[in-house]
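ok so I'm stuck.
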Amino acid sequence: MSDTSISNVMAIRAEVIARSRALREAQPTAPPGVAPTAPASTFADTLNAVVAKVNETQEQEDVVTEAYERGETTDIATVALIQSRASITFEATLQVRNKLLSAYRDILNMPIG
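replied:
not stuck anymore, here's the structure
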């Protein structure tokens, strides 16, 4: 191989390495005209949001039930619907918690090695 061929190969190699390094260091950006998305939420953020929503539903149920007990509203169907919604969201959250605990226990009991 001639010296020019070797120098060409080395130049190409250096360029490939430089581009590879630049790609590793580059930050992803949204295409033009597209709004950047929010960073992905963590599992803890999602869990906190769900618990907050369940709490909000429970508080709404308390307010409506107390209003009905004071005689401020006579729409028993709405009260029953909100009570059912609060009960279902709480039970669903409880089942998810039970499944998470079960999965955690299964992982803890896995043999290592």
